[in-house]
């Protein structure tokens, strides 16, 4: 693998940058692998990378029915944070934050991780109580957080209207939060995994599993059957479909999640802003676009087209907080299919089929946990038992009642 550096840039400048090595190969599937990862998004590619790098398992294939990062990895608002209330959530998201902080160096690929800070606004008494509870809880877990007054919020974001219909009463600020470039994360992990010998196979749809006496032996695809000793499924909104192919059900609902970007404008928002009460979140990209989103659609669906009612719901609160945005044109809108559990926390678990593992249920919070998800899932698959950070997210919690209820804690991830 060519190492990216100032010297390689200079070296390739003479050929007008036409002779760069391909970032990753496009091999044909082999008849058998040690591990197959189904799903070529950020989580699946990260899993393959850590299997090869840290677990010593390089006979790995990533199977993707479309193109790398064409699912939820490329259909989100790129926010990274770790300010989650429950200890189990705080552990995995803070593990991810620490991996994010060295990821560009780790992968030798600029994932454009920008720790510009994240403001979680409070608009009423309940909001103030909620950020107070969460702020103190995450502080005990060693996660950075600061309580800000309305005046401090106004000083930080001068263009925000803090005295609107829902006045800003305060905020919880995580200085280490921020954004990253979604495509770059997928490309960086793909390139690094390929360099370690992982086969990345695109345009290869899984049509079933080869299961014998309750043990997975491989997968069936549009490019033929492929054997494997262990299989990890990381297919986000289509995880319930994959589970049905394997003969069991997952406690998931699949919902559209929409977002949009504005036309580019001069720098005006240098942090990430979230509000659960008026329900909008916004940041500004390096190109000057405002990246805007809110919650999921109210209906179960696999449709990725937008609805005007959802767009109106997103734009109303944005204009309330930033009146100048009423004059902005929206350039594009997109939707991703998120898989949601009843407690709004993920599933990283063994399944009723031996040697078949599922990583799903991330809902609207998957992108920010890409590094940690891949890291702990890889170690779980390699060792045959769930990593200690992943263990609380077992599917068994829905039978035992040991839910990690971020939904009830009003800490739904964005």
Give a description of the structure:
The chain folds into two domains: 26-78 and 182-251 and 343-400, FAD/NAD(P)-binding domain (3-Layer(bba) Sandwich); 111-177 and 254-340, D-Amino Acid Oxidase, Chain A, domain 2 (2-Layer Sandwich). Helix 2 packs parallel to helix 7 (182-195), helix 2 packs across helix 10 (370-383) and helix 3 packs across helix 10. The protein has eleven helices and 18 strands. With 414 residues, it is an alpha/beta fold. Residues 408-414 have low confidence and may be disordered. Strands 1, 2, 8, 9, 10, 11, 17 and 18 form an eight-stranded mixed sheet that branches.
Please name the defining characteristics of this protein:
414 residues; alpha/beta; FAD/NAD(P)-binding domain; D-Amino Acid Oxidase, Chain A, domain 2; eight-stranded mixed beta sheet; 11 helices; disordered C terminus
Fraction of residues in helix: 25-40%
**Separation, N- and C-terminal Cα atoms:** 35 Å
The largest sheet is:
8 strands, mixed
| Number of structural units classed as domains | 2
Average of per-residue pLDDT values: 93
The CATH class assignment of the largest domain is Alpha Beta
Give me the CATH superfamily of the largest domain.
FAD/NAD(P)-binding domain
Helix-strand category: alpha/beta
